[in-house]
């Protein structure tokens, strides 16, 4: 009959829908409910009645299925809470271990999320790309772009809705509240904020005419600067303020939180002159927004064609330049990605150790609960139900412990970073967001399941009759369970080995880094930055004269030993130019090697403690009339090995027609200018008298540590020019610390993880052995009774500890060989296969295993034969 | 028993609607699921239909609470249907609920029915 077939179909559907009920409920009542529905259907006459019946049944299903789940969950949680109250010590242990595991993982995820996952705070950030030139033939990977090239890009490209550019700079801002202040900022193309998709909160962005050369009249302020200096007064719009010694009209205030490029808070138009900029002045960073529908590859092809055209027209400057179109996000995060991923892996290791630790604790407890569980099983609870309840216990602990750990983890890393002596780029937001929440929920659930499923299944694999009929004692753990628990302990040890070796390699690298010879003496040296406003010091001699006077007056301070100035502080930005030595015939730019160019005043080498190997220091007379340079040891050894470089002739940027031949007057020691990790680059020192820059880093070496030195320095500078801002006042030691800070931070995280891992593994091992001893008290008692020496018993327990440790260490060492290789790029002065580090880690774990074994072993040796035997 | 479970009964009141109706349906003797459903519909003049999920959810809790128990199968033809009956405790609970409702109805009558003078 067609009608009954339709009914059967509906019934089958209903049977399928019954899966919405919790499994135990379904198992109990599925048959009954189907029978009932069948009866009801048989009694329903007519299509209307049947339709009404099915509507009622469906409504009933929708309302009762969720409530059955809820009531079962409530019951399970109630049951779990009761069970946990019965063993508070165990519950506390599990909570703590879960908290540690989730905390470690969440902490790193918070960091990785902030840097790698969060969208950049721009409009449609995925469409933003960097147009970055490189010179593969000269090994220069990233060199920004030049102004003439930028104009060609803007005119010829078809792939972008806009191309903007900027170069970072500092500006002295006066007006408003307080002394003149040095503020980070940037020269920007008029359209840059539009390309980024960030618009001023007040006022407007720059106009195209404000970006023409020699206009230089507008400024946009950051929200923080506006609040700090101008009391958040909207009336400042349309007024002029003194920025870099020049009166500028405030046209806009950016939204709160916006800083650019890193911590910058003041922006002025670049106002560059195409005629005055060459195609070799790579000081611009170009950011473009991909047009809708244009892929990265298409944009790349477009830019390649434009660059080929530029190279055709300007072969000398551009023939070997490649322009790369790269996602902005990748270029920003490139430095952090590998270390964060490795730290995340280390965090997951800690989590894995925590989970195995909990699993072991639960397995141990399951042994003690076997009678209870068997009793419940005989009373009719089915296995699925008991597994569910045991899992609920674990998940409850995972949720409570994990939540505490996650909150701690998500707040501790931002707190550390905010108090660190580093500038966090503004695009990194450390506040936890939904990703952190979702991640920690996922971690908590997975950790709870990972730790709970095994023990729950194991606990319910019961031989009911066996458990209920056997005596309370001597219920030795099944061989399988013991194997499982020992395997888990060995796994914990193996994971700890990997973390410990990794941490060891990081520590050795850090020690090497801290001891590396940077080429200067950092003790008792103060540096600060001065920038003479172009408007008031337009003439080169005036600038040279000012620095001469400043250095003279500072030197006159009684506590000061030497004073000098340089165009940059160590690790504070580099200026690359090309180098040609006498006798060489290279003319193409691509053949000329890049060298670091540092402008210094007389006395700088002495003040910084940089050695002068040969020749002489600069004097005030080394001006344009007498072009001289000092080269560093690296250049001397490369060009004149075994000969005296003094008196040789060299040219800097020889492709420029007005580049003079300069005489080498001295050889200075190598200084690691770019980075404490990198060997000193070939460096040329140019006298300030020859190239009187307006912006210099002054270096003051004190005779003894003087706390008031900074204040004295400010007084001297104020006396010379009250409008000048004394900026970035820092001991050189602090610069070094800053440069090494992030590596120190990573190292500390690795060490913390390794310590947690080793502690957890030790506790896990000790706990497992203690249970083994408790389990075999009877046997130990007999052995002692028939005359075994306590030492034998100790040997038995410690022996087991060492066997497990050796198995774990062996596996861990293999894992470490495979995994620490990925640390290669982070390490310094040590290889990833550094055998002393491996040996130290392995020995340390062996020692820890020995101690972890001795505690339960001594308890075993103290077993009183009488008590042990009577207890049966 | 008697006095001792007074407190326990007190805790259960007011009974969920489905539970009270099921107790009422079982007052006339043991019944299986469909019969309970039918009886409830009859008792309420077709106003109340208990769906399968509601019915067996309530039965599960009533079994756990000792209000009803399952009649052991006698191996009859209708073997596959489980049959339930009220326990003495279940009857006392039903009685207590009835008493509670009676008091409520009395109060309601006093409040809403116009008094004849």
General description of the model:
The complex is a heterodimer of chains A (872) and B (117). Chain A is α+β, with helices and mostly antiparallel strands and 872 residues long. Chain A has 24 helices and 21 strands. Helices cover 53% and strands 15% of the residues of chain A. In chain A, the strands form three sheets. A six-stranded mixed barrel of chain A has the order 2-3-8-5-7-6. In chain A, strand 2 and strand 3 form a beta hairpin. In chain A, helix 3 packs across helix 12, helix 4 runs antiparallel to helix 10 and helix 4 runs antiparallel to helix 13. The longest helix of chain A has 44 residues. Chain A starts with a helix and ends with a helix. Chain B has five helices and three strands, in the order ααβααββα. The longest helix of chain B has 25 residues. Chains A and B meet through helix 2 and helix 3 of A and helix 3 and helix 4 of B.
Give the tags.
heterodimer, A: 872 residues, alpha+beta, six-stranded mixed barrel, 24 helices, 21 strands, 53% helix, 15% strand, B: 117 residues, mainly alpha, three-stranded antiparallel beta sheet, 5 helices
Instruction: Detail the poorly predicted runs of chain B.
Output: none
Strand order of the largest sheet of chain A: 2-3-8-5-7-6
Most extensive chain contact?
A-B, 24 and 19 residues
First CA to last CA of chain B: what distance? 47 Å
The major pleated sheet of chain A works out as: 6 strands, mixed, barrel
Spatial extent as radius of gyration of chain B: 16 Å
Tell me, what's the shape of chain A?
A: globular
Treating each run of at least 4 consecutive H or I residues as one helix, how many helices of chain B? 5
Order of helices and strands of chain B: HHEHHEEH
Sheet-strand content of chain A, in percent, reads 5-15%
| Binned strand content of chain B | 5-15%
Q: Based on CA inertia axes, which overall geometry of chain B fits?
A: globular
């Amino acid at each position: 009959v067609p009608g009954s077939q339709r009914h059967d179909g509906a019934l089958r559907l209903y049977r399928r829908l019954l899966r919405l009920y919790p499994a135990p409920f379904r198992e109990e009542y599925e048959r009954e409910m189907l029978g009932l529905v069948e009866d009801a259907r048989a009694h329903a006459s007519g299509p209307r009645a049947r339709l009404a019946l099915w509507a009622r049944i469906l409504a009933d299903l929708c309302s009762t299925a969720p409530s059955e789940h809820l009531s079962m969950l409530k019951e399970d949680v109630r049951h779990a809470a009761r069970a946990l109250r019965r063993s508070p010590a165990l519950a506390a242990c599990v909570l703590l271990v879960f908290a540690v595991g989730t905390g470690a993982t969440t902490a790193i995820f918070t960091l990785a999320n902030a840097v790698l996952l969060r969208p950049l705070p721009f409009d449609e950030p995925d469409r933003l790309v960097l147009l970055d030139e490189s010179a593969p033939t000269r090994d220069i990977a990233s060199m920004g772009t030049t102004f003439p090239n930028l104009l060609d890009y803007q005119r010829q490209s078809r792939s972008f809705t806009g191309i903007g550019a900027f170069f970072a700079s500092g500006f002295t801002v006066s007006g408003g509240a307080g002394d003149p202040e040095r503020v980070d900022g940037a020269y920007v193309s008029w359209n840059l904020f539009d390309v980024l998709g960030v618009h001023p909160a007040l006022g407007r962005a720059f106009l195209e005419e404000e970006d023409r050369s020699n206009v230089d009249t507008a400024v946009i302020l950051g929200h923080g600067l506006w609040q700090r200096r101008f009391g958040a007064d909207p009336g400042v719009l349309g007024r002029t303020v003194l920025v870099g010694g020049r009166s500028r009209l405030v046209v806009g205030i950016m939204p709160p939180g916006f800083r650019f490029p890193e911590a910058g808070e003041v922006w002025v138009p670049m106002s560059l002159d195409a005629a005055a900029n060459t195609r070799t002045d790579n000081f611009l960073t170009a950011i473009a927004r991909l047009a809708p529908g244009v892929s990265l590859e298409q944009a790349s092809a477009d830019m390649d064609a434009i660059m080929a055209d530029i190279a055709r027209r300007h072969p000398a400057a551009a023939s070997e330049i490649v322009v790369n179109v790269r996602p902005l996000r990748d270029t920003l995060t490139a430095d952090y990605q590998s270390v964060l991923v490795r730290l995340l892996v280390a965090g997951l290791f800690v989590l894995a150790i925590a989970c195995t630790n909990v699993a072991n604790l639960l397995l141990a407890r399951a042994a003690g609960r076997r009678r209870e569980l068997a009793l419940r099983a005989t009373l009719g609870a089915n296995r699925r139900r008991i597994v569910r309840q045991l899992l609920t216990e674990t998940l409850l602990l995972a949720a409570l412990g994990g939540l505490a750990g996650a909150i701690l983890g998500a707040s501790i890393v931002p707190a550390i970073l905010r108090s660190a002596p580093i500038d966090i780029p503004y695009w990194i937001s450390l506040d936890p967001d939904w990703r952190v929440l979702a991640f920690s929920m996922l971690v908590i659930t997975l950790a709870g399941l990972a730790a709970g499923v095994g023990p729950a299944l194991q606990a319910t694999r019961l031989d009911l009759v066996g458990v209920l009929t056997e005596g309370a004692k001597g219920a030795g753990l099944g061989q399988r369970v013991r194997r499982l628990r020992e395997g888990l302990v060995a796994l914990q040890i193996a994971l700890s080995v990997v973390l410990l070796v990794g941490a060891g390699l990081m520590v050795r690298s850090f020690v090497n880094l801290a001891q590396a010879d940077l080429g200067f003496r950092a003790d008792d040296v103060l540096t600060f930055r001065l920038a003479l406003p172009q408007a008031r010091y337009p003439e080169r001699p005036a600038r040279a004269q000012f620095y001469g006077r400043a250095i003279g007056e500072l030197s006159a301070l009684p506590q000061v030993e030497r004073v000098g100035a340089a165009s940059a502080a160590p690790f504070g930005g580099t200026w690359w130019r090309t180098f040609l030595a006498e006798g060489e015939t290279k003319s193409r730019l691509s053949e000329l090697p890049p060298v670091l160019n540092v402008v210094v005043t007389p006395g700088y080498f002495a003040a910084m403690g940089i050695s002068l190997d040969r020749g002489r220091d600069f004097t005030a007379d080394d001006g344009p009339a007498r072009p001289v340079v000092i080269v560093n040891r690296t250049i001397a050894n490369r060009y004149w090995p075994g000969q005296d470089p003094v008196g040789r002739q060299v040219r800097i940027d020889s492709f420029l027609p007005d580049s003079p031949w300069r005489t080498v007057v001295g050889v200075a020691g190598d200084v690691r200018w770019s980075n404490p990790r990198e060997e000193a680059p070939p460096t040329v020192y140019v006298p300030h008298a020859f190239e009187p820059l307006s912006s210099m880093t002054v270096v003051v070496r004190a005779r003894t540590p003087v706390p008031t030195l900074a204040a004295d320095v400010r007084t001297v500078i104020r006396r010379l020019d009250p409008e000048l801002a004394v900026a970035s006042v820092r001991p050189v030691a602090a610069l070094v610390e800053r440069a090494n800070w992030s590596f120190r931070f990573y190292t500390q995280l690795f060490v913390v993880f390794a310590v947690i891992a080793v502690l957890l593994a030790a506790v896990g091992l000790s706990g497992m052995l203690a249970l083994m001893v408790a389990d075999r008290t009877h046997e130990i008692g007999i052995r002692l009774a028939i005359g075994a020496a306590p030492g034998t018993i100790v040997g038995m327990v410690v022996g087991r500890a060492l066997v497990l440790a050796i198995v774990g260490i062996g596996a861990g060492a293999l894992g470490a060989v495979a995994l620490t290789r990925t640390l290669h790029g982070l390490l310094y002065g040590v290889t990833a296969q550094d055998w002393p580090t491996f040996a130290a880690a392995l020995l340390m774990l062996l020692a820890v295993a020995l101690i972890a074994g001795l505690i339960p072993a001594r308890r075993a040796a103290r077993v009183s034969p009488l008590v042990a035997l009577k207890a049966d | 028993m008697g006095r001792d479970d007074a407190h326990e009964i007190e805790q259960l009141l007011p009974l969920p609607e489905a539970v009270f109706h099921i107790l009422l349906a079982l007052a006339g003797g043991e019944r299986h699921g469909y019969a309970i459903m039918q009886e409830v519909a009859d008792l309420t003049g077709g106003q109340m239909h208990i769906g399968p999920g509601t019915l067996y959810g309530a039965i599960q809790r009533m079994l756990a609470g000792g209000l009803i128990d399952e009649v052991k199968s006698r191996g009859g033809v209708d073997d596959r249907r489980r049959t339930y009956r009220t326990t003495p405790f279940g009857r006392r609970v039903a009685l207590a609920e009835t008493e509670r409702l009676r008091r409520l109805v009395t109060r309601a009558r006093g409040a809403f029915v116009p008094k004849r003078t």
